[in-house]
Design brief:
The protein is mainly α and 100 residues long. It has a single domain (12-99), classed as 434 Repressor (Amino-terminal Domain) (Orthogonal Bundle). 70% of the residues lie in helices and 0% in strands. It has five helices and no strands. The longest helix has 26 residues, at 74-99. The protein is elongated and about 50 Å long. The N and C termini lie far apart (37 Å).
Amino acid sequence: MSAVRSETAPPVEDLIQIFGIAVRQLREVRGWSQEQLAERSNLNRSYVGEVERGRVIASILTAQKLARALDIDIASLLTRCDQIERQRTVRRINLAAIAC
């Protein structure tokens, strides 16, 4: 049985990577190191690095810990992911238009 997904939904691998990009951007805006974010979120520093690189799938609990550490709600973190995905889509469309 294959999974059904929306025409507009990015592949799971993209979602994992986008989540990591969002976490990294929000951390960097605050001027924090991965170690500082790890301490504030009660996570291992190497695990935070793996999340940021899109190497692991963060659980909902991990997403909540990261959001709280970043002093935002989880909805704002997920909204940031959506913004990144939209930017990537626009970039792909622009590149496709240039290639034509």
